């Protein structure tokens, strides 16, 4: 009976000693693995910087004309079909009375659903002709950017169908009525193409309207510039190699870069902080497992916790 008691006491002492050692190791390890700040340096560069409004849309026709009948008559002949390209003056429909209906402008025929022998009435809609020479695209502009643009302002347009080409255009219309959605109000801005080349109605577009541009300016990635109650600043190393704040003044910016107007020159280096990950918790977990967290930690005769939180005995003791 004494042997059994002695064995149990010995096991408890060993567990307590292991936990103590684990706690000491954790504290020591925690001190030596405190998160350390590391820095990456970035140089001030000189170049062109622009701020622009961008948006996506599709190619649309600036004009869609509806052809209406000027007669009450019967159709004797239809000379076009949907998707036909016509010129101004081309014959579209012939009537039994000898009258003809012609195209008043060039474009693409659509919404034609008539048939020979059908009776038509005065002012009846017969078809549409979509102007395929005067093309536009439409983007949505945030209300805060609306004062920065005006009709006639130049824009550049790219098309998914022609990824290597850039098309020029101008703002032809700014909507007077906005659309409110999810806390934001936007206005439709229509841009007319200067040259349509091989562009077709319905192609997807991306448009850019430059609202500010400066050349030969000092600039930094916008992520390097911070602000406080004293203004804008960056992190730099002083003459002794210590990291310190340096106040700067900035100019125009976009989503990527910001102009530096005072405080830094081309080639100056600024710092971006990186925080190292602390691994102390993993060290603690490993030591706790070694101190009896797993079954058989003491050569097959230790004590641990079972899945229900009770004490389980492994191995055997001799009497």
UniProtKB/TrEMBL annotation:
Domain of life according to the entry: Bacteria
| Record's protein name | Uncharacterized protein
Species, as recorded: Inconstantimicrobium mannanitabidum
């Amino acid at each position: 009976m004494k042997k059994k008691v002695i064995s149990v006491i010995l096991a408890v002492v060993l567990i307590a000693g292991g936990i103590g050692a684990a706690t000491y190791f954790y504290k020591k390890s925690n001190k030596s693995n405190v998160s350390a700040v590391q820095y990456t340096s970035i140089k001030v560069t000189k170049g062109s910087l622009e701020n622009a409004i961008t948006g996506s849309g599709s190619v649309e026709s600036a004009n869609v004309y509806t052809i209406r009948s000027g007669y009450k008559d019967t159709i004797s002949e239809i000379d076009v079909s949907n998707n036909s390209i016509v010129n101004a003056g081309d014959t579209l429909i012939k009537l039994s009375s000898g009258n003809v209906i012609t195209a008043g402008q060039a474009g693409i025929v659509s919404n034609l659903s008539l048939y020979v022998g059908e009776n038509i009435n005065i002012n009846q809609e017969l078809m549409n002709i979509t102007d395929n020479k005067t093309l536009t695209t439409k983007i949505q502009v945030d209300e805060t950017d609306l004062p920065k643009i005006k009709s006639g302002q130049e824009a550049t347009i790219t098309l998914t169908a022609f990824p290597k080409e850039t098309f020029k255009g101008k703002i032809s219309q700014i909507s007077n009525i906005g659309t409110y959605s999810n806390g934001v109000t936007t206005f439709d801005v229509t841009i007319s193409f200067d040259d349509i080349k091989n562009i077709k109605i319905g192609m997807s577009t991306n448009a850019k309207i430059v609202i500010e541009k400066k050349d030969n300016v000092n600039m930094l990635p916008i992520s390097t510039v911070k602000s406080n109650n004293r203004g804008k600043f960056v992190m730099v190393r002083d003459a002794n190699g210590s990291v310190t704040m340096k106040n700067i003044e900035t100019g125009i910016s976009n989503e990527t870069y910001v102009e530096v107007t005072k405080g830094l020159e081309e080639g100056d280096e600024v710092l971006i902080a990186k925080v190292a990950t602390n691994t102390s918790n993993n060290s603690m977990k490993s030591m706790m497992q070694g101190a009896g967290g797993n079954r058989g930690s003491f050569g097959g005769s230790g004590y641990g916790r079972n899945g229900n939180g009770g004490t389980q005995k492994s191995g055997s003791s001799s009497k």
